[in-house]
Each structure stands twice: as structure tokens, then as C-alpha cells.
Specification:
Elements (H helix, E strand, L loop, with lengths): L10 H9 L8 H14 L4 H14 L5 H4 L4 H8 L8 H18 L5 H6 L7 E2 L13 H12 L7 H10 L3 E2 L6 H7 L4
Parallel strand pairs: 1-2
Length: 190
């Protein structure tokens, strides 16, 4: 079975690629989790974050923005000591900041999904990449997303992080054309 070239032979990575990456995601809380995890990945491999994902879910109350937004300094210090997550102070604090920004958006009646999917006009962009070298690290859309997220108070949401998020959440189909997932996703057979 042919997969995208970035997938290692690690079983967890294969399952993530085959069942999650690039498949359109519309659930508010799952999008929030993914955005925070993409921020945690900055400077590291995605596999590192993936292996700690369950630790993150446990540490951050299953990514419940309402609970996370209430974290105080004592809780943040506890998280900084938690070996099940990446113990970068700025990245940990960004999750709390992002939870508060998330609540600002959703308390005004807009779903987080609609807020994010607006950057691709509500529909996945179907790319046709032949090789990994054809895939950019950021696009004009990810730059716009990044600017808006920052304006709305989010942290660790640069244009490269935003593009990785757009790929992972299925806003763009960046599976290479000879990957078995490409046609499935392109034709909506998920």
C-alpha cells in the first residue's frame, strides 16, 4: 500500500496517516485540540507529539476550552513538570491563551469550525501534488489564517503551523497523488 513519503514505518504514524491526516474535521473541540498540538509540534517532529497525544489529552482535560481557560499559575507549573507532554513553558501557556481566545469566538455564537473553515471557503481544497517537494510549507491562505488567529489572541499559530493544521484537518488534501488516501479523500469516500 503506497503512502505519503513522510510516513515512517511506525505503526502509530501509519494509523494516523491512514485514518486521520487530511480527512475533513469539523468538530470544534477536536479542531481546538489539533491546533494546540500543531503549536506544540513547532521545532519537533509530528511523531513526537503524536506519541504524547494521550498524555496531552489527560493533562489538558481532554482539551475542554472551558476548563483550560480557568487554569491558574499553580496548574501551569504542574503542567510544566508533566513528563507526558512537551514541557515547554511558552507552548503550555499558549494552550491556556488559546482556550480563552476560543471561548471569545464561540461565546459570540460562531462555531470554531466555521471560524476556521472560512479560510478555505468552507470546502476542502483538492490539491494534486506529485511529490513531497511539491508541497509548500505555507500558503497565502495559511498566512491569512495566521494573521486572523493572532489578531484574535491565539499563540503558536504562525503560517507554517497553520498550513500543517490545514493539511491535518483536511482543509487541504495534500496527500500525494499516488498515496492510497488521495483518491479516497478527493472523492469523499472517507
Amino acid at each position: 500500500m503506497k503512502r505519503c513519503g513522510w510516513v515512517t514505518e511506525d505503526h502509530q504514524y501509519e494509523v494516523y496517516h491512514d485514518q486521520e491526516w487530511g480527512r475533513p474535521l469539523y468538530d470544534d473541540r477536536k479542531l481546538f485540540e489539533l491546533l494546540c498540538l500543531e503549536g506544540a509540534q513547532a521545532g519537533l517532529s509530528w511523531l513526537t507529539v503524536l506519541k504524547k497525544r494521550e498524555g496531552y489529552r489527560e493533562a489538558f482535560d481532554q482539551f475542554d476550552p472551558g476548563l483550560i481557560s480557568q487554569y491558574n499559575e499553580e496548574k501551569i507549573q504542574e503542567l510544566i513538570q508533566n513528563e507526558k507532554i512537551i514541557r515547554n513553558k511558552l507552548k503550555i501557556r499558549s494552550v491556556v491563551t488559546n482556550a480563552r481566545a476560543y471561548l471569545e469566538i464561540t461565546q459570540n455564537g460562531q462555531s470554531f469550525s466555521d471560524y476556521l473553515w472560512q479560510f478555505v471557503d468552507g470546502l476542502p481544497i483538492q490539491n494534486a501534488r506529485s511529490t513531497l517537494d511539491d508541497i509548500p510549507t505555507q500558503t497565502e491562505r495559511s498566512q491569512r489564517m495566521s494573521r486572523q488567529l493572532k489578531k484574535d489572541g491565539f499563540k503558536f499559530v504562525g503560517p507554517t503551523i497553520c498550513y500543517a493544521f490545514m493539511q491535518a484537518s483536511g482543509m487541504v488534501n495534500d496527500h500525494v497523488k499516488d498515496c492510497f488516501c488521495y483518491e479516497e479523500i478527493k472523492n469523499g469516500r472517507e
